Amino acid sequence: xxxxxxxxxxxxxxxxxxxxxxxxxxxxxxxxxxxxxxxxxxxxxxxxxxxxxxxxxxxxxxxxxxxxxxxxxxxxxxxxxxxxxxxxxxxxxxxxxxxxxxxxxxxxxxxxxxxxxxxxxxxxxxxxxxxxxxxxxxxxxxxxxxxxxxxxxxxxxxxxxxxxxxxxxxxxxxxxxxxxxxxxxxxxxxxxxxxxxxxxxxxxxxxxxxxxxxxxxxxxxxxxxxxxxxxxxxxxxxxxxxxxxxxxxxxxxxxxxxxxxxxxxxxxxxxxxxxxxxxxxxxxxxxxxxxxxxxxxxxxxxxxxxxxxxxxxxxxxxxxxxxxxxxxxxxxxxxxxxxxxxxxxxxxxxxxxxxxxxxxxxxxxxxxxxxxxxxxxxxxxxxxxxxxxxxxxxxxxxxxxxxxxxxxxxxxxxxxxxxxxxxxxxxxxxxxxxxxxxxxxxxxxxxxxxxxxxxxxxxxxxxxxxxxxxxxxxxxxxxxxxxxxxxxxxxxxxxxxxxxxxxxxxxxxxxxxxxxxxxxxxxxxxxxxxxxxxxxxxxxxxxxxxxxxxxxxxxxxxxxxxxxxxxxxxxxxxxx
Amino acid sequence: xxxxxxxxxxxxxxxxxxxxxxxxxxxxxxxxxxxxxxxxxxxxxxxxxxxxxxxxxxxxxxxxxxxxxxxxxxxxxxxxxxxxxxxxxxxxxxxxxxxxxxxxxxxxxxxxxxxxxxxxxxxxxxxxxxxxxxxxxxxxxxxxxxxxxxxxxxxxxxxxxxxxxxxxxxxxxxxxxxxxxxxxxxxxxxxxxxxxxxxxxxxxxxxxxxxxxxxxxxxxxxxxxxxxxxxxxxxxxxxxxxxxxxxxxxxxxxxxxxxxxxxxxxxxxxxxxxxxxxxxxxxxxxxxxxxxxxxxxxxxxxxxx
Amino acid sequence: xxxxxxxxxxxxxxxxxxxxxxxxxxxxxxxxxxxxxxxxxxxxxxxxxxxxxxxxxxxxxxxxxxxxxxxxxxxxxxxxxxxxxxxxxxxxxxxxxxxxxxxxxxxxxxxxxxxxxxxxxxxxxxxxxxxxxxxxxxxxxxxxxxxxxxxxxxxxxxxxxxxxxxxxxxxxxxxxxxxxxxxxxxxxxxxxxxxxxxxxxxxxxxxxxxxxxxxxxxxxxxxxxxxxxxxxxxxxxxxxxxxxxxxxxxxxxxxxxxxxxxxxxxxxxxxxxxxxxxxxxxxxxxxxxxxxxxxxxxxxxxxxxxxxxxxxxxxxxxxxxxxxxxxxxxxxxxxxxxxxxxxxxxxxxxxxxxxxxxxxxxxxxxxxx
Amino acid sequence: xxxxxxxxxxxxxxxxxxxxxxxxxxxxxxxxxxxxxxxxxxxxxxxxxxxxxxxxxxxxxxxxxxxxxxxxxxxxxxxxxxxxxxxxxxxxxxxxxxxxxxxxxxxxxxxxxxxxxxxxxxxxxxxxxxxxxxxxxxxxxxxxxxxxxxxxxxxxxxxxxxxxxxxxxxxxxxxxxxxxxxxxxxxxxxxxxxxxxxxxxxxxxxxxxxxxxxxxxxxxxxxxxxxxxxxxxxxxxxxxxxxxxxxxxxxxxxxxxxxxxxxxxxxxxxxxxxxxxxxxxxxxxxxxxxxxxxxxxxxxxxxxxxxxxxxxxxxxxxxxxxxxxxxxxxxxxxxxxxxxxxxxxxxxxxxxxxxxxxxxxxxxxxxxx
Lengths: 576, 305, 369, 369
Ligand SMILES: Nc1ncnc2c1ncn2[C@@H]1O[C@H](COP(=O)(O)OP(=O)(O)OP(=O)(O)O)[C@@H](O)[C@H]1O
Ligand SMILES: Nc1ncnc2c1ncn2[C@@H]1O[C@H](COP(=O)(O)OP(=O)(O)OP(=O)(O)O)[C@@H](O)[C@H]1O
Ligand SMILES: [Mg+2]
Ligand SMILES: [Mg+2]
Prior knowledge:
The complex is a heterotetramer, with 1 copy of chain A, 1 copy of chain B and 2 copies of chain C.
Chain A: H1 12-22, H2 25-51, E1 53-54, E2 57-58, H3 61-68, H4 70-103, H5 109-117, H6 124-135, H7 140-149, H8 161-186, H9 189-197, H10 202-213, H11 215-230, H12 234-240, H13 248-257, H14 261-286, H15 311-338, H16 354-360, H17 363-395, H18 402-410, H19 417-428, H20 442-464, H21 469-477, H22 482-510, H23 516-519, H24 527-536, H25 540-573
Chain B: E1 5-11, H1 15-28, E2 32-38, H2 41-54, E3 61-63, H3 67-75, E4 79-80, E5 101-114, H4 127-131, E6 137-140, H5 146-157, H6 164-172, E7 175-177, H7 180-189, E8 194-198, H8 199-208, E9 212-215, E10 222-231, H9 237-248, H10 250-257, H11 287-304
Parallel strand pairs in B: 1-2, 1-3, 6-7, 6-8
Antiparallel strand pairs in B: 3-10, 4-10, 5-8, 5-9, 5-10
Helix pairs in contact in B: 3-11, 5-11
Chain C: E1 8-17, E2 20-30, E3 35-39, H1 46-54, E4 61-66, E5 69-73, E6 78-79, E7 87-90, H2 102-112, H3 117-130, H4 146-159, E8 164-168, H5 176-193, E9 197-201, H6 204-210, E10 213-218, E11 221-226, H7 228-233, H8 238-243, E12 248-258, E13 261-265, E14 270-274, E15 284-289, E16 294-297, E17 306-314, E18 318-325, E19 328-335, E20 345-350, E21 354-357, E22 362-364
Parallel strand pairs in C: 3-9, 3-10, 7-8, 8-9
Antiparallel strand pairs in C: 1-2, 1-4, 4-5, 5-6, 10-11, 12-13, 12-15, 13-14, 15-21, 16-20, 17-18, 17-20, 18-19, 21-22
Helix pairs in contact in C: 2-3, 2-4, 3-4
The structure holds adenosine-5'-triphosphate (2 copies) and magnesium ion (MG) (2 copies).
Protein name (chain A): Iron ABC transporter permease
Main location (chain A): membrane
GO cellular component, one term (chain A): plasma membrane
């Protein structure tokens, strides 16, 4: 036995564990488990625990209160069907948009893909308000309609389930767009070419070949859009309450205002339950692991589909879509930021720049912008790496338990922001060990990590399933250890997915409101907090101006990304 | 010796009200710095209760719009009593008998109307007339707006109005929207003709050029104190007390009057054009009763709407 | 329209990738029912040419017709997409659809054409049997070995009967046995349907044994376009001689010329080959002799060159020898009956040989008795 | 520890995928410096066996040692990861890293081992030259042809000098010329470094010409493990006879037996082959004759079988014929000097043949003069 450096075990299971330790997977697993425990499980536990406490003792009373009220079931049902339809809209817009922009010879690709992700930068509350301003009873579109077809009610009602679905759908599709666009770039084009030479037309290729190949990404993006819909509060609050149309989040908000936090947490647990069931459904539908390994060891350059005669039509459809889902709400937002007060008539005398002046004269608002820039970058960077490693352990490393980490990481995304905020306060005011982070800026970082872990997990998962196993195996056979393989082969190949995930997290965290508003303190204000506070105290114009100010940030981010992509391209083109 | 250090100040008062007061105070007490944590009233309450749930209240001074919150805090022992020279100048209804809280400000909820849609003759003079506007009338949900919640309490206990008012509103098609912001925006934009509006908000909007105005009703408006109090766990009681005294002082109140608010002191004149507190017919509010029956009321309302 | 009668006509095709001329003017025409092969070393532009014909790559200049119908013309900007060119194609990288099982992969082109389900199933069964893959219809591609995947790709192209079949090294991952079977099957299909085939391979034997005509390519150009025997026996350029089959080069001088035969002094002895024309004695030449044309014997004429066996390799049907002759290494191939030990001395004679100018390219090709 | 002296020892290896037995008990041992080949048809389990040796797949049962050190043992649960097995490997699917250029791909194994940058660059240059890819070091894989990518994969395994080299059809996408060059280079590397090679191929010629020993596999089992000549001339099972080289089967009865030679009546005539032992006359047998062992002549003995040429194919070094003899199709291979037209009648004699029991598998292998 002396010749072997590795202690052989009598027990195969012990040997397996030893192997896991030996190549670093177990160490990594333990580190990541600790990370997930601290950022997700422990705060989550604080919330769940409270839901079982009534007047200091364990009780199911809160759950009874939740389950005995019929209106709660109505709210669950409303949440479900509204989110499902909204997700369908998001998936259709996001997937079609991504396909056209990434894989056809349409002009102005750069500008189009920027425009397509831009709505993501608008806080949902503003989307809702923007759409009220556009299509509400006295909105611009409604006024136009009346001017054309005479006075009387318009044939639509923004204050309805339909309105909620529409606004949710057009607000959340960038989640699908970003995930699917990344996947499309990586599909081996010979698979499409093979269909083409078999006599299949473009549309059919897309349906039969391309779509199934990027299915994991579509499901991944769809899952994000779904959870994003089901946990949205701003849109159903603005558009639903007037129609007495309640969803779970608006019910939870009510419970929080009473305030009956145990009841709210019990309802949140219900929401998490609903979201989890949906997630399991999505994951099931994603299907098997290796079916989609399309980044293989045989390399080809991505193919571009010539639209030919259909080009003008496609361009027209895209431009129309962008006008409706991107330009219109953005216009409403920008308009609001320049109007003296929300709803003022559109004449010169009511236009003003004083909202912008007010912002630049408020030191806290300026500080908020800086804080948001840093916090978002921090959260995005940390999450991108940790979630990539979790996904890797799960999909490639095949470590038992990594799947559980992955599932746990998705849960917080289904929690309403205010519940996460409460969880952070409960968890970090007087933690059993370590410093009290509540009251410092670090709690915001932790909160963003908790809230957006799902983005990182979903995007890295979608990319990882596309990487063929043999590429990692070749590195191992070259003598690289498992961890080295991850560093040198897997992470670089994951890069497009990681960049997409980073951007998703960055943009979301950059103007996050609902969590931040509960846990910020002076010195750690964020741009989202200020948008919310301005909005809440009636300074709609200033809030809109702040939201508009976030747009250049997105723009710069996007330009950086393009620059990076071109750099990468040039690297690829470089010839010896 | 003069107070020094930091005061953690939790406030749901609008920034343009609070900031000048803080600035004036810090000028007077250069050794004290006030850390303002401003938040919407609902979020502020969520935060306060979460902190309490977690075992410690960070706030040294709290100033919020909902009196019931302070009754709850007082009952749970989270407030510290404040003995002050200003007690004499503040009427009894505007302070706690045990000196646990004082009103720092008063605002009124009456009828807000759109001057383009409502002729001067048609402005509702009482709450029954308000209902005649049907779907063109709106209020913020008492479930989300603290002021409306208090108003609901006042209505229900009022002999001439009562719970029936809400049932009639429902029948007439009166709109209930989420918060004060929504209802104000709807009024400004012309979606609504009349709303349950707040005096200083209407005044501020009108100052911006919006076609809105505010009217007092003859059967009573809601005159709501916004209490201010010191947290029981404060680690800088001197500075906290100094800050609170400054707000209650004649100088502090004058700053509020400059912003269209009614003063809480009898020795400070109200803003020009506003009735003096004695001319206003205010609804009675029993905050104790409200604190006790609030949940039930809310449930009743959410069953109705 | 100057349409020709060929199944595929390619005129003046050129394509650059950046600074690299992947195809540098290629012209050829495939007749109806012809088996036409592009043969050349790795990276010479075979796949690129095929992809241009398929419509998967747009050439920079040139003109392509399929069945007399122009499908690409750089002058007019015409460029039909692949699905409108009525072709069947097998990819070098298989390109088996990972989300469909074997039967679905093969049946898909039929399904697209609206063939009824039962008919598809029957045809797929047939193709699977042909590919020696019966019973594997339900497998997913990730559960297949490399060769099995290649067969699926082949089956997909065979399922329908296209106007032209484009094949990019479709047999490279099959074992010799199966490869031979598939070769025969391809020939059969082609004969039966009169189907023109454009075949890409780097395998000389494959090219020689299957093709009606072969275009030997190098660095984006066609060096020689002719029937297999001509390519092998009378190569147009030294590259072709060199690439198609192994060859020994021996520097030599002309020692004599008698009765259509030439005596060449190769240093260490004299070899005799047939020569149609007279060359000046002592011209500075090289003779190229293929390994199988070198005859080895234990004894022979006194002036014949004598070489030493350095290595013997068994290749099944015979032996491959490495010989040393005056410091040069030669290769020879013999039947199994001719056995020499390593280290033995053998006498060389040449059955055939080709004279090459040492300075320039290929000068004359000379067949011997 | 019952370690053997072999470079690689595989004992009782078995691996199932679901219900499919991909490897069904495989045993072999590779000596130091030996060139060992797994040869078999597509899907027989070659790649799976190789992957188990590499540590990329865990076998269900069995034991593997590399250099006398156990690396896998299903009994103890030992299973070293690939990077601790000191192997070099070339993948059938290339597995070239798409995000690294050619030089980075080849240099990576050196980099992992901490070799200095300048040394890496020099070694990469060397390997590139060897692979006939000098100057392509800066290209990205997506800009390479199929064969070029395969060469990069090969270069990656050659860059370091591993304890064992595992090669999964590393030459399948190279042209014959380059393949031969690489074969020679592989042999050279192996001899120089005494490097044991485990080679996987489906190409008989490749296997026969390069290997010291060959294991012929089918359906997850080794049928015959021996030196190339033995495999070819004295195949252990009918499968091996059939798979390694082409073969003609003729039903026959023993017509006579004289002086170590046997006369076989094949219907239509008599063939004579050498036979070491006597068989009862008229036993119901089959004789297997390889195409190159069938001699064709215009004339011959009266009782020799006469066949008709149905097809002639040119294969460069000679011709391949299809013959018809009494309703059966036969194949024969001749040198270029033996030319018959299609339709001609030829007389057959056999140089060698192997007797096969018609009922059971392979009975006796018989070499002829
Ligand atoms: N997309 C590309 N960008 C740059 N160069 C390319 C690209 N595709 C091919 N090449 C180069 O063009 C040349 C021709 O490539 P092609 O694929 O046609 O070769 P091939 O003859 O099919 O070779 P093989 O037998 O190895 O498959 C090669 O040098 C290759 O590296
Ligand atoms: N992951 C898998 N799941 C199920 N079956 C598999 C899997 N991998 C391989 N097989 C099957 O196992 C058998 C052996 O596969 P293997 O790849 O070892 O074949 P091979 O001998 O290398 O063939 P080839 O020469 O075609 O590459 C094949 O029938 C194959 O379909
Ligand atoms: Mg090629
Ligand atoms: Mg294989």
